[in-house]
Amino acid sequence: MYVAVKGGERAIExxxxxxxxxxxxxxxxxxxxIAQIREQLSLAVNRVMAEGSLFDPDLAALAIKQARxxxxxxxFLIRAYRTTLPRFGTSxxxxxxxxxxxxxxxxxxxxxxxxxxxxxxFDYTHRLLDFKLAADGEVPEAPARDAVPGDxxxxxxxxxxxxxxEEAPHDDTPPPDLTREPLxxxxxxxxxxxxLTRADEGFTLGLAYSTQRGYARNHAFVGELRIGSVPVEMExxxxxxxxxxxxxxxxxxETVNQFKGSKTEPPQFTRGYGLVFGQTxxxxxxxALVDRALRWEELGEDNVGxxxxxxxFVLYHADxxxxxxxxxxxxxxxxxxxxxxxxxxRKLRREAGADQVQEAAx
Length: 362
What we know:
Elements: H1 2-24, H2 34-40, H3 42-52, H4 57-66, H5 71-82, E1 100-105, H6 131-134, H7 155-161, H8 189-197, H9 201-212, E2 220-236, E3 241-257, E4 270-277, H10 281-294, H11 311-317, H12 320-328, H13 335-361
Antiparallel strand pairs: 1-2, 2-3, 3-4
């Protein structure tokens, strides 16, 4: 037993060394710096921050480098590191209405106060490989631009003036902290939104797509999508007021969905909501669609049995770190379990063979 353990340790050490060598790659090629990853792979960095629940571009870039570009492994590294950090306090809720927007679009209203700002987007590119990048060609400088100033009203505020959209619910009850407490069902909307904001982007996208294809009565418009920076403030007891301690980049999406009304509520639009770290608009839109699908019960709608309407299915399977852990554990040694099943199958085959011989004799 001792020899087997020592042999295993040596094998693991060698695997680590080999992993480090593979991560570095050809040493004749310059090593990627953290700054290069942060600045030139910013969308990957944003995803790692969002699903890792930690806004720190440098740490996210480091995790991507260490994980050889495996974003789920990088997210795992960030979440593990996050658990070691002390918590000094709680910030006040951020005001996305005061966001300095780099991108702000609406699919429902053409003319908006402050205007529509396309920002840096792939939406209008031709999806053709740019071989200038392979030749390290210089990128032409973009025209001078300024972020849309803060205090830009949300599009849904226009609908709200006429009572055409449900009031955004206000609840001052502190929500549970999913980063410190395990998920429990049933989950209220605040907890569902926490789970969705750090859910796997691909899984959330697939669920959102399913709602558009009819697996939930969820025809939605993007009321507004905005990306930009917002200040983060904390209340300082000694001062008696809040001070700004930094800023974060967020993507916010509000969807507008049809609602036929009920005996007590007139027909109006309802909301789906998504809020994610960084420029992660695909995730924010997906989150808003899934959020709206999960609200079927509180809105008195029918459950058509769609996967996106099943809170337990969605929330328990959306976390890619939990999914990865459970999936990958099956490649670890299961020798005893397998040997017992192997012996059982052999026994069943012997019994079946004996029965067949007896039937033939009869």
